[in-house]
Amino acid sequence: MPNSIIAEGKTTNEAIENGLKVLKVNKNQVDIKVLDSDDKRSFFSILAPRVVKVELTVKEDGVKENNSHEKDNKPKEIRTYTADELNKAESNVDVFLKEFLNKIGNDINYSIKKDETAIFVTINGHEAGYLIGYRGETLYSLQNILIAVASKGLESRVRVILDIEEYKSKREKTLEDLAERMEKRVIRTGKSVTLEPMKAYERKIIHSKLQSSNKVTTHSIGEEPRRRLVISLK
């Protein structure tokens, strides 16, 4: 990706926007220099096509931020655990959930499975939906608690994957549908779309859904927990 380009447009704002699309960055990530403004036009050039030229130079920090979207797609190294570690972790989680869920309601049940890479917990029941929260915030908080519980008495931090009422699969479908709608919108309007802040795994779903598109590209901007995904024309 070039660090500096000269972009053109009918207005200064249009020229800047055209340059940002090429560089795949936002306005805060570049230094802008107007090279040819409509203010300098002479009387004899009034009828000539209006062209404004600007030079956009990506700030050093802007390059780092723009390239940092790669960590959304970079696969995490998944470690494995011994049978003793997994059995201990499963027992820790089982004891905790029995006591915790009994205080939540009677119509809640759970199951625990494991493989060499993680403990998988599924919670279902009429009252289980209260444990999901807005956009899964309560679910992920509970998942973090279970990680701490599972790892108690062990030297390693044990990976725990929690799902409640199939929320994650439903959310994945919602995000994939969103990706398709935003792709069509970007193609139709030619304008980039910046989505609301999302968790890393949610951004990754949209990245993966659109990575094979020959029309649009995706990248992430900002810092956690306000990191956002941008969809723009290639």
- What is the count of DSSP helices, taking H or I runs of 4+ residues? 7
* Major beta-sheet overview: 3 strands, antiparallel
Tell me, what is the CATH class of the largest domain?
Answer: Alpha Beta
CATH architecture of the largest domain: 2-Layer Sandwich
CATH fold-level label of the largest domain: GMP Synthetase, Chain A, domain 3
Element-by-element helix/strand order: EHEEHHHEEHEHEHEE
Low-pLDDT segments, ≥5 res:
38-47
The tally of structural domains comes to 3
Relevant CATH superfamily of the largest domain:
K homology (KH) domain
Strand order of the largest sheet: 1-3-2
* Amount of helix: 40-55%
3D architecture notes:
- The protein is an alpha+beta fold.
- The protein folds into 3 domains: 1-65; 83-165, K homology (KH) domain (GMP Synthetase, Chain A, domain 3); 168-234, R3H-like domain (Ribosomal Protein S8, Chain: A, domain 1, 2-Layer Sandwich), CATH 3.30.1370.
- The protein has helices spanning 12-23, 60-67, 70-73, 83-104, 137-150, 167-189, 200-210; strands at residues 4-9, 30-36, 52-58, 109-115, 118-124, 160-164, 193-194, 216-221, 228-233.
- The strands form 3 sheets. The protein has a 3-stranded antiparallel beta sheet with strand order 1-3-2.
- The radius of gyration is 25 Å and the shape is elongated.
- Residues 38-47 have low confidence and may be disordered.
SSE arrangement:
Layout (H helix, E strand, L loop, with lengths): L3 E6 L2 H12 L6 E7 L15 E7 L1 H8 L2 H4 L9 H22 L4 E7 L2 E7 L12 H14 L9 E5 L2 H23 L3 E2 L5 H11 L5 E6 L6 E6 L1
Parallel strand pairs: 5-6
Antiparallel strand pairs: 1-3, 2-3, 4-5, 7-9, 8-9
